[in-house]
Every structure is written in C-alpha cells, then in structure tokens.
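quick q for whoever's on today - can somebody do inverse folding on this one?? i tried earlier but teh output was garbage lol. tokens:
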C-alpha cells in the first residue's frame, strides 16, 4: 500500500487545480480518475478534423479573478487568452449587441422602448439595493420584475437567467444576474490571495522558465490587454451600469480548452502521480478521520480532496450523519446540450468574435470558436458550437430535435453548409445556482476530508467557479494547518 500526503479524487479541472496547488506547497499527491480522459469539462478533442471543446466556454474574471491568481502563483506554463468579444442576439434584421449598460439599453430596439425603460429602472433598483448590502439571493428574477412586460422581454430575461443558472427566471436569483452580468464583480488581488493562504515561496522553482512565460509575461493577448487598460479604472457598480462595458475581462484560450488543460498538466512537478481509469469505490475512515481510499488498490493518505459530485459522497463513506446526507440531497443538477457544426466555408452570419443568444421561442448560445483560432477547423472551414439548456422533464431525443429545429429556424441556410456535426450532453456544473439549490461545504463531517469543485461555490460559472472553489479550499486548508 502506497502512502501519499494527499489523495485527490477526480481529475476534472477542480481536481487537477487542487493537485497542482497542493504539490507546489510541497505535498506528494496522487490523483485518481475513474474515466479515460483528464480535464472533465475542460478539454478538447478532434472530430473529423475539427477540434471541439467540451461545451462552449467563455473564461471570465481574467483580470483579478480566481483563475489568474492561480496561474500567477502556481502555473509554470501559461495559456494565452484572446479577447472574447461581445454577446449578441440574432433577429430577422441580423445581430444586435446585448446591452451591458444603461446607454446600450436605450438603443436596444429588439425590445419595446417601454420595456427597455422598465428593465433599466429595475436593474438600477437591484444594484442600489445590492450596493447597500441587501442580499438578493433569495429573490427570484421573475419576482423582481414588473408584471406588465411583453412576451419577448420575458423571453429575453428568461434566456439570460437560463444561461447563468441553468434554470428559468422563476428559479434564478436576482443576485445571480447582477454578478453573472459583471455589474457586481468579485475580484481577488494578490494581497488578498496572500492573506488567505499565507504567502509562500516555491521551495524549488524550475531552473528554466517556460518558453511561453518568457515570451508572454502575462496571460492576456495584446488585444484583450488593450481593452482592459482602457476601462480598468475603479468603477462602482452603479457607474459601471451607466457607462462601462462589463465583459472586458472575458477571454477564450488560444488553441482551445485543451491549451488550458495542458498548461495545468505541464506545470505539475514530479511529486504528482495521476492514475486514470481508476475508480474510487470507498473512502476509508477510522475514528472519524480519513486515512486513505479504496480503488484498484488501497492508497493511504492523511488528507483527501474529493472533487466528484458531492451528492455521490454518501455512496463512498459509511455512517455519514443523516443531516449531512439530507443537506447534500438539496444540490440541484442541470444538463446542457452542445451541438458542434463544422461548416464547409466561413459564413458571413458568423463574422464576429463572441457569441449570440437567440431568445425568441427557444434560446441557444452560439459561438464560432474557429474565429479565435483558425487551426480549430480545417483550412477555409468554420467551427461553431450551439449550447442549450435541457428541459429535465423531456427526453434527450426530444431536446436534440428541438435544438436542431431552433438552429435551422434561426439560420435557415446553414443546413447545406454542414460538413461535420457532433453532439455532447453534459452536466456543466456540479450544482446549479437556483433560489432553493444547496451547495456543499468544503469541510465535511469527517476530519481531513474536503470537497472542492463547482458544487462548493456559487460564484461565476464553469472553470472560473472551479477556480474560486480551489482558492477557498486553500484558505480552509491553511486555517486547518493542512496546507504547509
């Protein structure tokens, strides 16, 4: 039986970030992954010559958010992020930018003028309440809205809610819309980060810096850095609502999500061991303290980081407190569908960087990722991802047909240009941010067993949320004297 300092269960992005950070604090780490591939929803693979991501992604909070803090402190190799661009809606008249401030709302003629004014007033009210410290997490978006809006306006708000929480506006909190739209920002400065985890020096930095790090000292492409420099003054929430472009800190990794995954893997020191296709069937506990896991063998460690679904934890440990099990049952899951279409040529309908949201009848999130990097598609071809929130009460076959119908209704000429099509059904995050949905605590009732991942933190989405969870994990490990 091998003994390690830390065993990480799961090799999604949360598990890999946990392993990387703990290894840089001098820990000998074992990562166990039940699947064949690493990275979870942070990965890319090739289908008929097109490199598709696991779902469409926009990486948020790239200035002082959690991922850049982790990259700056723990990565030896840095991915480069291209400027994400803008969000649009597609109508019969073409593309219109989704409003990001009050000035934009005035000219957003997709909605009736009266509704635009009402939405602006409602948003200002919500931001004012939030600025005074009033928590809007328990107020649904629907309850916060006036009831005299037209159907298109409700559909628009419902679409925004769906992509921020995976649920309708009746189950999405007003606070989620404020933070998800970046009107209320979470930032993590280096000083705050140092205070949370205790400033440390790498005991053994690599003697040779990575080529990427020496050529590109920062992780933002020049075009995105220029936008950041232009608007990076300290706006308040209300000032940001009035004038600022709120999505300036979003990016897409050059070479796709695999570039971010590889940056993590290439940064691992020799003290990290990874075993794929090795499912953990039990977490071993004695005297209410973990001492190892059971998989294809018995592996011992005094510290276990579990990054699977928190709802599955009771299956791995006997005699968890019933109250704790009931709390985990309150975590809400949602499913998403992504359809990747490889197109025989670059279409004028997708001549932009960013993504579009079609909100009449049925919403999609469309993202032409080969516009960021042409190498993601064969020469002179184009790759576009269409993501949808799946209705849990319908069959996947029904939702798939509905999704294709939506694409062909929004873009009636696209069908004759399809060169490749590929579908993915996945759970985008391990917990949905809903009014009544629960999140797991990082600490568990078992000593030295911790949970990390997107079911332990409700901030932001996807990879950014996973990064938040890892910083909170490091903070708690430091408090429990398990970090250094």
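ok took a stab at it. sequence:
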């Amino acid at each position: 039986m091998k003994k390690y300092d830390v065993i990480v269960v799961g090799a999604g992005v949360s598990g890999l970030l946990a392993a990387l950070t703990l290894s840089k604090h001098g820990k000998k780490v074992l990562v166990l992954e039940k699947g064949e591939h690493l990275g979870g929803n942070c990965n890319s693979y090739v289908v008929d010559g097109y490199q598709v991501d696991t779902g469409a992604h926009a990486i948020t909070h790239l200035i002082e958010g959690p991922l850049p803090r982790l990259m700056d402190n723990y990565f030896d190799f840095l991915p480069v992020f291209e400027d994400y661009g803008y969000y649009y809606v597609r109508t019969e008249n073409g593309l219109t930018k989704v409003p990001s401030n009050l000035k934009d709302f005035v000219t957003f003629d997709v909605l009736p003028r009266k509704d635009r004014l009402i939405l602006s007033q409602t948003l200002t009210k919500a931001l004012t309440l939030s600025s005074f410290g009033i928590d809007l997490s328990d107020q649904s978006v629907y309850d916060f809205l006036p009831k005299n809006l037209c159907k298109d306006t409700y559909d628009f708000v419902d679409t925004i809610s769906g992509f921020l929480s995976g649920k309708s506006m009746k189950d999405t909190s007003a606070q989620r819309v404020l933070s998800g739209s970046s009107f209320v920002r979470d930032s993590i400065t280096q000083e705050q980060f140092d205070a949370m985890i205790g400033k440390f020096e790498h005991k053994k930095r690599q003697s040779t810096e990575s080529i990427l790090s020496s050529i590109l000292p920062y992780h933002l492409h020049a075009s995105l850095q220029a936008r950041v420099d232009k608007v990076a003054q300290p706006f308040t929430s209300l000032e940001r609502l009035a004038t600022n472009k709120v999505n300036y800190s979003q990016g897409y990794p050059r070479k796709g999500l695999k570039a971010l995954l590889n940056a993590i893997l290439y940064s691992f020191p020799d003290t990290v061991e990874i075993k794929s296709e090795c499912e953990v069937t039990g977490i071993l506990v004695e005297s209410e303290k973990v001492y190892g896991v059971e998989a294809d063998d018995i592996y011992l460690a005094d510290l276990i980081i579990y990054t699977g679904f928190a709802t599955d934890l009771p299956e791995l440990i006997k005699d968890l407190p019933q109250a704790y099990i009931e709390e985990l049952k309150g975590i809400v899951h949602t499913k998403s569908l992504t359809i990747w279409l490889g197109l025989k040529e670059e279409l004028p309908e997708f001549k932009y960087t960013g993504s579009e949201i079609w909100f009449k009848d049925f919403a999609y999130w469309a993202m032409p990722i080969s516009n960021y990097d042409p190498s993601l598609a064969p020469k002179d071809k184009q790759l576009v991802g269409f993501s949808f929130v799946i209705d849990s009460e319908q069959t996947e076959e029904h939702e798939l047909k509905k999704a294709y119908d939506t694409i062909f209704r929004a873009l009636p000429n696209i069908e004759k240009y399809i060169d490749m099509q590929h579908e993915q059904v996945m759970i985008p995050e391990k917990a949905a941010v809903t009014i009544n949905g629960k999140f797991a605590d990082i600490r568990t009732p078992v000593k030295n067993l911790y949970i990390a991942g997107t079911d332990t933190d409700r901030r932001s989405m996807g990879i950014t949320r996973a990064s938040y969870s890892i910083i909170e994990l490091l903070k708690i490990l430091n408090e429990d004297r398990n970090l250094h």
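fwiw The chain is about 30% helix and 20% strand. also The longest strand covers residues 418-426. so keep that in mind when u check it
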